[in-house]
C-alpha cells in the first residue's frame, strides 16, 4: 500500500469551511461535551418544534434503541426547499443532465417547491397519508427527486428500488413494506438503451396484491400497457394539481425512508432511517467533507436507488441550499469523455464518484479526460469500495491536475452518511485511506473475540457510540436489527468491514469480513445469488464468493453442483448466468460459474467458504487446514477445474 502523503493545499488550509484549528475545536467539544456539540450542530436544521432531548441511544440489550432529538418536530422538504426560497428562490436547485447530451433541465428552488407540492397533491389525491410506504422505481429524472421530497412533505415513507432490479426483486421489496402505491416511468434511458420499467412493474405486480395505484412518469413516451383503474400517467395529474402543499410536522424519530440492502443472510433487509437525525447527518457531512460553498455546482454520480443517491444527490445538498447535478446517463456514452464534458458544461466544483467508474475510465487512457478543461473542479470524492492507490493517484494527477484534494469517504447504507473521511481543509491525504473519523464518530478495531485493539493494528471495524444518522431499525423486524449489528460484539455496532489503523490513526478499510461482496460498488449478499441459482431446476447446490476483478473491484464467482443426471455444458453455464440476471438484476451477473461435483464441507455439513474464496482468488497454495473436511479430495478437483472455468 502506498504511504505517500498529500498535505492540505495552502489555499484550502487558510480558507476552507473547516480548517485544522476549527476541526480540532469541534473534535474536542464533541468528545468533552457531546450534548452541547449536537445541540449546536442541530441548529443547522429548521425545527417546527425545538427539541429538548438529544442522544438517548443505547447499544446494550437491556435498554437497546437509537434515538436522537426525539421530542423535536420538523419537515424534511421544508428544510430542503422552503427555507431557501427567500434567499435563493431563483438559484438552480437541481441541474438535470440527460442521457443524451442535448437533453437537460435546470430547476430552481422556486420551481422545485412547485413541483414537489404538485407531486404531493397527486399522491394525496390517491390516498397517500402520513406513514404510508410509497415504492419508487424510477430512473434518474427530476421527478424522482420530486417524488422523494413529496413523500417527505406528506410524511409518507419512500422505499426506492434501484431501477436495475428485476421484477422479482421489486416484488419482494414491495411486499416487505406493504406499499399501496408504486411510482415508476414508462421506460428508463441509459447509454442510449431503453429499460422497460413499466413492464417490469406489471410483472412484479402479478405477485403483489397490496398495490392499488401505479403512477407512471412518461420519460420516453413509449407505448406502455395501462391497467384501467390501477395505472395513471403522472403528466396530466401534475398539470391538474395545486401548486402548494403545507409541509407536515413530523417527529424527529418518525421514519423518513426505507432502503433495502444486502446482508450476509437471507433476503435484503429494509434499512429504516429517521427524519431528524438522518437529515442532520446528510447535511453536516455534505458541507464538511466536500467543503461546500454557496453557489457551487456539486455533482454526485450515484443513482438515487442507492444510499449515496439519497444522502448526496438529494437530501444533503438540498438541505444545504446547494446546486446538485443529477445525471441520467453513464460514464461511457456517447464516449468516455462524458463525465468531464459534463463538468465543463455546468462548471462543476465538486465531483463525487465510485472507484469502479474511475478504474474503467483510467483504462481508456488520459486523452478522454484531457479533452475537457476541468478548470472548475475543486474537490474530488470517492465512495462505495476501497480505492486502490493507482486509481487514487490517477484521479488526483489526471482528473484533478494535481490541484484537487480527494475525499475517500467510508460509510454504509446503515450509517446514513459518511463516518470516516478527510476534511479537505484539515486532513493530509494518504492514497487508499479514508483517513479519520468525522466529529462525534467513535470507530474501534476489535479482534475475533471482541477485544479492543490499540494503536497501529488491524481488526474488525466497530463503532462505539451512536451518531444521529444511524439507521433506526430493520423495517418490520427490530429483533433482526439488534441481532445483525449488535450481538457479534455486544455493546458495539459491527460494520461488517475489516480495517487497518496506522500509526497516525488513519483507517484503511480492507473490505467486508462477512458474506457480503462489493461488485462495482454495489453491495450483494452471496446468499442472494446462491438462492437464485438453486431456484433453477437443474441446480442442486451453489456457493458464491467474491473474486478480485480489475474494474469491478470484486466479481461474482459461483460454484454450482448440478442435480444427478445433469451434464455440465457451456450452454448451461450461459443459461445460469441469464437466469441470475433475470432473478435479481444485471448487477448480480456471475463472472465465473464453475461446475463442482462436490463442495468442501465440514463433517457437520457447513460449506468452508474460506477455501472457495482462496480458489477464486487463485491462491491455491494457501488453503490452510483442510483436514476437518468431510471429504478433502473435493478440493483437488475444485482446483483442477478452476483452471478450466476461467
Ligand atoms: O465495505 C464497505 C464499502 O461498502 C460497504 C457499504 O455498502 P453500501 O451499504 O452499499 O453503501 C455504499 C455507499 C456508502 C461498506 O461496508 N465501502 C463504502 N465506502 C467505502 C467502502 N470501502 C472502502 N472505502 C470506502 N470509501
Key terms:
646 residues, alpha/beta, Rossmann fold, GMP Synthetase, Chain A, domain 3, 2 domains, eight-stranded mixed β-sheet, seven-stranded mixed β-sheet, binds adenosine-5'-monophosphate-propyl ester, acetate-CoA ligase activity, AMP binding, ATP binding
Characterization of this structure:
This protein is of the alpha/beta class. The protein folds into 2 domains: 491 residues, Rossmann fold; 122 residues, GMP Synthetase, Chain A, domain 3 (2-Layer Sandwich). Helices cover 32% and strands 22% of the residues. The chain has 21 helices and 29 strands. The longest helix is centred in the first third of the chain and has 17 residues. The chain binds adenosine-5'-monophosphate-propyl ester. Adenosine-5'-monophosphate-propyl ester (PRX) binds next to helix 12, strand 18, strand 23 and strand 24.
**What percentage of amino acids are in beta strands?**
15-25%
Largest beta sheet: what is the strand line-up? 10-9-6-4-5-12-13-22
What is the typical, i.e. mean, pLDDT? 96
Q: How many domains would you count in the coordinates?
A: 2
Rough outline: globular
CATH secondary-structure class of the largest domain: Alpha Beta
* Computed structural class: alpha/beta
Radius of gyration: 24 Å
Q: Low-confidence stretches at least 5 residues in length (pLDDT < 50)?
A: none
Most strands sheet? 8 strands, mixed
What is the CATH homology-level superfamily of the largest domain? ANL, N-terminal domain
Could you state the oligomeric state of the chains shown? single chain
Helix content: 25-40%
